[in-house]
Design brief:
- This protein has 388 residues and is mainly beta.
- Strands 2, 3, 6, 7, 8, 9, 10, 13, 14 and 17 form a 10-stranded antiparallel beta sheet that branches. A 3-stranded mixed beta sheet has the order 1-5-4. A two-stranded antiparallel sheet has the order 11-12.
- A hairpin with a 2-residue loop joins strand 13 and strand 14.
- It starts with 33 loop residues before the first helix and ends with a strand.
């Protein structure tokens, strides 16, 4: 992988991208298009092969980072395998004949998780890279202690924690029916990647898998004429949400797509709501709009969204009606019809998080799943099962 900072623009006459400008664009779109790139790609490959040599070279006396003076996918010296500890304690009691109530507390803590790449060189930061940028022919000098781009290192410093209170009311099979109600009050927090090079744990908070409330109801009942009806319904509350400013680096740390000030990563729906978001936008427009970031970007005014949602709940009801036909003592034919997501609840997902794209913020782009099955578009199927 070669950073575009090593490739000067060879095409004259492109507005905003003069001849010789490195093709490394950090502040937004330019008029250098994908079509332009495809026209120069064969020439660029040829020049790089002349400068760097055989890409399949296995001589480890010279490492890639000495040649390219940048890197990604590097592992820290103390990188270790992640592990987790689990703790579960519960009680169970029969409250009525055939009906048992149970309550469990669950704790699962994971440590030494992969942080993904962290730019130790802070190449795009306002203060400049830690290792000075190469000048002139230093790019091709193996002895030159300079850099041409980010040096991304993966650490085993991430951690996460799941806690939950699990309640279950279970009626065992008797008198031709059974049912189960299961409810979970839970919290899932962890490191959501490195979003701030000045404070690596700035994004520590609710994860995308965090669903505060979850309820599942299921049951089976035998009906006359050897019919059997069964159902399962699942409900989950909204996931956490965030509001970002795509393309902006507000603190000059070298990372972009910062979250809106006065909010934190995935804090919406977890302590902050719509009114809090509007107040944060008003405060940002008053204090920051029109100024410049530490890297020189002009801070635009953030439009206040009018018609938006901070995610969607999940609900699906699946049912089955079947008939058992006993052919002989050891042979059985089960014919049944099933309906998935019987009420055809949309279960929307893919909500836009970029506040600077007002028409898409807080609006869905799809459903939880588009395939056949629970939670997807309403679907029916007929089936038969032969047992012997």
């Amino acid at each position: 992988m070669i950073d575009a900072a090593l490739i000067p623009n060879p095409i004259p006459g492109i507005p905003t991208v003069p001849l010789g400008r490195p093709l490394n664009f950090q502040s937004g779109p330019t008029q250098f298009t994908g079509a332009h790139f495809l026209t120069i790609l064969p020439t660029v490959r040829g020049l790089l092969a002349q400068q760097i040599g055989d890409p399949n070279n296995a001589d480890l006396s010279v490492r890639n980072i000495e040649v390219f003076k940048q890197g990604s996918g590097l592992l820290a010296k103390d990188f270790v395998t992640p592990y987790s500890t689990h703790f579960n304690v519960g009680i169970q009691r029969e409250v009525f004949p055939d009906i048992v109530l149970s309550a469990d507390f669950v704790l699962r803590r994971s440590v030494h998780q992969n942080t993904s790449g962290i730019d130790f060189n802070r190449w795009n930061s306002a203060g400049g890279p830690v290792i000075p940028a190469c000048v002139g022919q230093q790019v091709l000098d193996l002895r030159a202690r300079c850099s041409t781009g980010p040096i991304e290192v993966q650490l085993s410093a991430g951690r996460s924690r799941y806690t939950g209170l699990l309640l279950k009311l279970d009626r065992r099979w008797s008198r031709q029916f059974q049912f189960s109600l299961a409810y979970a009050l839970s919290s899932s927090v962890g490191l959501n990647g490195i979003r701030n090079n000045n404070s690596w744990f700035d994004s520590y908070g609710p994860t995308s898998a965090d669903r505060r409330h979850s309820l599942t109801v299921s049951g089976i009942v035998d009906l006359p004429w050897s019919l059997r009806f069964s159902t399962i319904s699942t409900f989950m509350s909204k996931p956490p949400f965030r509001a970002q400013l795509f393309g902006l680096d507000l603190n000059g740390d070298g990372t972009i797509n910062d979250v809106l000030p006065r909010t934190a990563w995935n804090e919406l729906n977890r302590g902050l709501g719509k009114d809090d978001l509007r107040e944060a936008i008003d405060a940002f427009n008053t204090s920051s709009a029109g100024q410049r970031t530490p890297t020189g970007q002009v801070i635009p005014r953030v439009p206040v969204p009018t018609d938006f949602e901070l995610g969607d709940r999940f609900f699906s009801m699946d049912v089955r009606l079947g008939k058992i036909i006993r052919l002989r003592e050891r042979y059985e034919l089960n014919v049944f019809a099933e309906a998935f997501n019987l009420l055809n609840v949309a279960n929307l997902t893919g909500y836009g998080v970029n506040l600077l794209e007002g028409s898409a913020f807080g609006r869905p782009t799809g459903r939880t799943t588009q395939v056949f099955g629970s939670g997807g578009p309403r679907a029916f199927q007929l089936a038969a099962k032969f047992s012997f």
